[in-house]
Amino acid sequence: MVAANPPLNANRVLQVLDPNLPSLAAEAAVDIENLLQGTASDWGAITKLGHLLRNSIEFPEQGSSPRSLMDPPTLVMLGAAISAITPLDLRSKISLLLKEAGDIADILSSEEVPQDKNALTRARDFCIALSMAAAAYYDALFETPLHSHRR
Length: 151
Known about the structure:
Structural class: mainly alpha
Radius of gyration: 16 Å
Helix content: 55-70%
Strand content: under 5%
Number of helices: 5
Number of strands: 2
Shape: globular
Distance between the termini: 50 Å
């Protein structure tokens, strides 16, 4: 199976305030699960999320650390999603977090469907964690009571 064409707006970056991010990440997780089960029909959400993630990280020449092109709240959300799927403590080094995000972006944005089931499982788990982290952040900002005495 060959991946779908990249989205028209291929220069977009990951943003925590994107109201479509939780559903896009959840849709990508479902599509990856379908790939794992052998019933996949669409690779579009996976590729779109992969391009968002790939566009959010700058990879300079070899030997240099990756650089985030995200705003700080988005980087925190990404860190929460990656920390949920990895046993490593990535909170102390942004460069390690970005390298891990880059590895996942490679899986999600590849032209061919990865054959490594462990990589696909890791990408699926990341998509689920990203969806949950983005939804939680969005809810915390926009779903608060109108008045402090109304709950």
